[in-house]
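I'm curious: can you give me some protein's one-letter sequence along with its backbone structure tokens because I've never seen that pairing?
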Amino acid sequence: MAKFLYVYHGSGKMPTEEAERKAAMDAWTGWYDKLGSAVVDGGNPVGMSKTVMPGGTVENNGGSNPTAGYTIIEAKDIDDAVAKARDCPILMDPAFSVEIAPIIEMM
């Protein structure tokens, strides 16, 4: 099985209400349970990033496509990884997307 990186993109904010946070965590837990042993690293959300551009200029606030978090999974191929991502809870928000890339083992 190959490993794939899911990079979550979007500019949404973490829920502030306890009930919303619990509902979001329950959705993620349910999705991870569905993925089962395919989850290699459940990942985490990430804070606001800075992007270093050619020439050294820096874009604050994540640039044009801010990263919101990541997960690493195992799948047969990229099409299988895409199929697994279709149920990702982050996609309930139209401001988010999931980028999928194969991890190339170098060492």
Notes: The helical segments are 18-35, 78-85. Strands lie at 2-10, 39-45, 51-52, 58-59, 67-75, 96-102. The chain has two helices and six strands.
